[in-house]
């Protein structure tokens, strides 16, 4: 069979991704990526530490970042994304900027981090008051609150899960319950933290219910990285990706209006086992 008429695969543009050693949601990242873009993932070295501020510091050391970015240079990505929220907010805004500079020096290409992308997304959406959902312990959650406050954004509500391992196994139903609890006090938007927490399918449903933009760690990471390529993230109707999905003031409950769409069944959730 002659297949010469196919002409070979289309040219691909690459995004390098540096993830912590315990990252389990590769497929979720891919779901935000258009067909013409490939993700090239590498992971930080394993360390026997549970999710904590200590782990966040270990997986964000500049020497670790240098080695990770260098492993990606052979496939020539156009941008590198550090896909870990706690690892990129643990040093505050100055620490996040220093991480980007270290990665750029190592690979001579633009670099973004999840926490830097978070602040970029909050600016894009005009958010001054944000509600937070995290799977973290109280100490890691407080560090995120301090990071957001450094950027001049008020934390309007917060809910956390106090987990130190197996975060990728959290079902969507638990994420939604925490989101409802955090977003009670007039937030402009909700941020769901941690790149290991599944969020892809739940974002549109929560936006429809809460009537505010809902952003997540993996979503903002891919959105910001693809922006550097001059292209857009893809995904179901959601405020960060599609300006048509952005909300004005919350609507009152009106009898006869349909309820928000049901959350997907747990059996269909990304990363749930």
How would you characterize the overall build of this protein?
37% of the residues lie in helices and 15% in strands. The protein is an alpha/beta fold and 273 residues long. The strands form 2 sheets. The protein has a 4-stranded parallel β-sheet, sandwiched between helices. A 4-stranded parallel β-sheet has the order 6-5-7-8. The longest helix is centred in the middle third of the chain and has 16 residues, at 92-107.
Helix/strand layout:
Blueprint: E1 13-19, H1 26-31, E2 37-43, H2 53-58, H3 62-72, E3 79-82, H4 85-89, H5 92-107, E4 111-113, H6 114-124, E5 129-134, H7 138-150, E6 154-160, H8 172-182, E7 189-192, H9 202-210, E8 214-216, H10 217-228
Parallel strand pairs: 1-2, 1-3, 3-4, 5-6, 5-7, 7-8
Helix pairs in contact: 3-5, 6-10
Short description:
By secondary structure, the chain is α/β, with parallel strands linked by helices. The chain contains 10 helices and 8 strands.
């Amino acid at each position: 069979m002659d297949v010469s008429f196919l002409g070979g695969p289309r040219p691909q543009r690459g995004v390098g991704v540096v993830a912590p050693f315990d990252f389990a949601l590769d497929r979720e990242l891919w779901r935000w990526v258009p067909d013409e873009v490939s993700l090239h993932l590498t992971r930080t070295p394993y360390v026997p530490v549970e999710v904590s501020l200590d782990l966040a510091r270990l997986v964000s050391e500049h020497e670790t970042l240098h080695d990770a970015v260098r492993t990606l240079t052979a496939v020539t990505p156009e941008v590198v994304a550090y896909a870990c929220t706690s690892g990129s907010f643990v040093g505050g805004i100055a620490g996040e900027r220093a991480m980007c500079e270290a990665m750029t020096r190592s690979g001579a290409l633009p670099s973004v981090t999840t926490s830097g992308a978070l602040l970029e997304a909050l600016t894009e959406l005009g958010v001054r008051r944000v509600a937070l959902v995290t799977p973290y312990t109280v100490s890691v959650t407080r560090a995120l609150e301090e990071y957001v406050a450094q950027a001049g954004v008020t934390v309007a509500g917060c809910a956390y899960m106090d987990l130190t391992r197996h975060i990728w196994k959290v079902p969507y139903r638990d994420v939604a319950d925490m989101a409802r609890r955090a977003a009670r006090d007039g937030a402009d938007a909700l941020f769901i933290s941690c790149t290991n927490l599944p969020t892809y399918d739940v974002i549109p449903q929560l936006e429809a219910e809460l009537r505010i933009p809902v952003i997540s760690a993996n979503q903002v990471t891919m959105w910001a990285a693809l922006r550097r390529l001059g292209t857009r993230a893809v995904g179901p109707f959601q405020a960060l990706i599609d300006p048509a999905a952005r909300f004005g003031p919350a609507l009152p409950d009106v009898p006869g209006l349909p309820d928000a769409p049901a959350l997907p069944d747990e059996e269909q959730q990304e990363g749930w086992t």
